[in-house]
Amino acid sequence: MDFSGKENDVEESLSPGVFDIPGEPAVVINGLPPISSNDDTFLPCPVVIDAESHKNIDFGQLFEGREVRKLFEDKYYNGKVTKFDEETGWFRVKYEDGDDEDLEWHELEEVLQPLDINIPLEEVVRKIIKKKPSSIEKFGGRT
C-alpha cells in the first residue's frame, strides 16, 4: 500500500508558521521557529499566512457557539453558529426566530459578532476538546 501522498499532506498541514484568522483578535502559532546551532543568531520564521489559503488546518470548530447578527430585508436577526461541517467547510447558523442556514466562511465573516474577550482562551479550547471524540472512540475502542 502506498501512503506517500497522505504523508505529504500531513507534513504540509503541520508546517510551522503563524496564521492570522480574519476577524479574530489572536493568531495561531503552529510549531516552533527554526533553531540555530549558534545561540547568538536567529533564523527567520515564516511570516503570517492567511488562514483561508491554508485549508488543511481545521479552525471551523473554534467558531461553534459564536454569535452572529445578519440583516434580512429591513431587520437584524441574531443567531449562533451551531455546527461546522468539515467535509463542505460550511457553518450552520441557527437564528432566534427558528430559521437556520449554512454559510461559507466569507459569508460568516461578514455577520460574525466580536469575540467576548472576557472568556479565557483556555476555556474556549476546553469546550472544543470536550466536543471532539477521542481517537480511541473514533476507532471503536473503549470509552
UniProtKB/TrEMBL annotation:
Q: Give the originating organism.
A: Solanum verrucosum
Alphabetized InterPro entries for the sequence: Tudor_AtPTM-like (IPR047365)
Return the protein name.
Answer: PTM/DIR17-like Tudor domain-containing protein
Q: Which residues form the PTM/DIR17-like Tudor domain?
A: 65-112
Listed CDD domains: Tudor_AtPTM-like
Taxon lineage: Eukaryota, Viridiplantae, Streptophyta, Embryophyta, Tracheophyta
**Origin, by domain of life?**
Eukaryota
A Pfam family per the record: PTM_DIR17_Tudor
